[in-house]
Amino acid sequence: MKKISHKNRARLVIAALVAVAPLALTACNTVSGVGEDLQETSDNTKKVFTPKSTSDAGSKSSTSNDTTASR
Question: Which helix (H) or strand (E) holds 61?
Answer without folding.
Answer: helix 54-70
